[in-house]
Amino acid sequence: MKKNRSSGFDRRNTINFYAFIAPWLFGFLVLTVYPMLESFRLSLTDTGFTGDGSYIGFANFIQALSTETRVLTAFKNTFFYVLMFVPLNLILSFFLGWLLSRKIKFLGFFRSVFYIPYLTAGVAVTIMWGWLFNGTYGLINYTLSLFGIQGPNWLGDKNTALICIVVMNLWSIGNNVLIMLAGIQDIPTSYYESAEIDGASTWRQIWSITVPLSTPTIYFNLVMGVIGAFQLFNQPYILTDGGPVDSTLTVSLFIFRNAFEYGKMGYASSVAWLLFVAIMVLVLLIQSTQKKWVFYGDS
User: Fold this and answer.
1) Full-model pTM
2) How confident is the model at residue 276 (pLDDT cuts 50, 70, 90)?
3) Cβ(120)–Cβ(168) under 8 Å?
4) Cys-Cys link to 43, which of 51, 210, 215, 270 (CB 3.0-4.6 A)?
5) What is the pLDDT of residue 163?
6) pLDDT band, very low/low/confident/very high, at 46 (cuts 50, 70, 90)
7) In the chain, what are the domain boundaries?
8) What is the CATH number of domain 65-293?
């Protein structure tokens, strides 16, 4: 009798489990798995706006990797952006997270101040930064002119346009700051108390305690930062349209143009899969190094 009750209870639990995950599972299959499979199918065709196309094998991939120079430019710009943004994002997130973990006055206010830009980041904020960086009437150049300095055309110069986009996105890293703050606050205070008794300075405590025990959080922010940075689209599309001279042309913007402006759905899908492969390879490389620098307290 007990066995029958136990099996009936397990069956109900199983049914409840699948009932609860059914909405997520449906969304995952319909909104993630199916689009990915359909995208791969399109990448092997010359499909256009009409949806009609013929099978051409890997011709799109060959074109993207061999004859399409703008694909290489887009990947180069995207890699350059990742190399600039991700390290600065990690450093600033850690530094601000550490500051916000200190016992200071108005701590809740400062935490809100750093998080609000993340909530407001979007088209309106991008346009605001475009006004700030405007070479003719922008606030930055106006401030420089007060000191007799003629500022450059920030977004119109191929040497500074991508750097400006990095600065814009660093302004809205509040989510990473809060994640970093949570990781730092999870460190037992007894470690710091022991270090103070031994006479360790604040810098020594940061370097020997905070940084090592925050490496799991840093690793998480690193992986998520790389994935997000590779998909940069909004700022180049809104402010520069990939210019000047393709200096801010990213892979996501290149995919968008080919798919929705030129009607090359199949070709755009192939470049999207190349982007997916690039992200996966880099994330796997990062993952392969975590045992050397990520410290888990229970290991």
Assistant:
1) 0.90
2) very high
3) no
4) 270
5) 95
6) very high
7) 65-293
8) 1.10.3720.10
Per-residue pLDDT of 188-202, as tens digits, reads 989 998 999 888 898
Query: How many Cα atoms are found within 13 Å in the side-chain-facing hemisphere of 24?
Result: 5
Asked if pLDDT for residue 34 goes beyond 70, the answer is yes
For the residues 97-107, what does the mean pLDDT come to? Answer: 83
pLDDT at 5: 56
**Residue 237 confidence (pLDDT) above 80:** yes
Q: Is the peptide bond before 244 cis (omega within 30 degrees of 0)?
A: yes
User: Measured between alpha carbons, how far is 234 from 8 in angstroms, rounded to an integer?
Assistant: 53
The answer to whether the beta carbons of residues 152 and 135 sit under 8 Å apart is yes
Q: Report the length, in residues, of the chain.
A: 299
Mean pLDDT of 41-52: 88
- CB 67, CB 74: distance < 8 Å: no
Q: What angle do CA 87, 36, 82 make, to 5 degrees?
A: 10
